[in-house]
Amino acid sequence: MQKAIFELEPLTCPSCINNIENTLNTTNGIYSASVSFSSKMVETQYDEKQIKVEQIEEMIKELGYPVMFAEIS
Q: Which domains are seen in the chain, by residue range?
């Protein structure tokens, strides 16, 4: 299992959190996704054999939230 943290541009509303979390948490290969409104971070736990970090980043971008930085550990 891998962990990736994505830094986003500032979020404008709390519903942004639900939009990102609901989409990522229902995606195969992603075990958990949580968004911090105040720090603009999305933390994910995922199976790198099922989904790539680039795919997760692209999903976030497609939702309309530009990713500024991604850290994988």
A: 2-72 (3.30.70.100)
Angle between helices 14-25 and 53-62 (to 10 degrees): 140
Q: Indicate the pLDDT class of residue 36, thresholds 50, 70 and 90.
A: very high
DSSP state at residue 51 = -
* C-alpha span between 18 and 22 (Å, rounded): 6
Bridge partners of 72, per DSSP, are 4
State percent of the chain over pLDDT 70. 100
b/e string for 56-67 if b means 16 or more Cβ within 10 A?
bbebbeeeebee
